[in-house]
Predict the 3D structure of the following.
Amino acid sequence: MSWARIMAPLAGAPTDRGLLEAARVLAEGFDAELACVHAPADMADLMPWMGEGFMGGVQVTALESLKEAAVEGHRAVDRLVAELGYARSRAISLDSPVWAGLAMEGRLSDVIVFDSAAARGKGPLAESFQQMIADEQRPVMVARPGLKVGGTVLVAWDGGKEASRAMRTALPLLQKAAMVVVAGAPGASSRNFALERLVEFLAARGVTATTKVLDGTGNDAATLLLGAAREVGADVMVAGAFGHPRLQEFIFGGTTRSLLNSDGPSLFLSH
């Protein structure tokens, strides 16, 4: 098993350049196709707010501005992809309904790459991040400085189904890693799990891993994991996302939110 298609949602803005560079690093590591998907603002989303008589002068001007912005964004993405110089990259520009097109592209991709801004709820792709990871339940990579394939990967393990799904989906990344560390706090969890069992599971799949037992309470899981990532020099952390109801995590925080708001390593997340 490997990753054959990496997807990078793009806004058609200058900030796309850094995201594309990170996505290329990931795609090159697997000799994968890089789908560079331009997701412009969708005019269909504005229609319910227009009301009757929406074809008035102000409304028409607003729609024309959106059309022009979409065309310019498409051109910008084409330029950035050409400048990227990755032979297996492909620029795709979505039409209305944009979200349906983005969802379909995500379903046909192995991993979707976002930057930290989108993951923290900022910028034009913030909603796309939430939809992809929580609604579509697609695996995502939150790319941060230092992202690479073949480095050190820390796997956050608590025996839960979200952590299991993230670990299984990340197997191609783990199989290419120079070092894999399984980290967890069995003594602080209500679940009965052993880190050594996951090490055995990975060994049967060609991954040599070590364990790192974390001491602490479940309330500071993110702090413990980030500390462990720093200690081992992790380039990527693999973790389950939104283990509690999504609305509860969004309002009250949770481990996922703390990881997203941190300045730690790149995050591979799956819900």
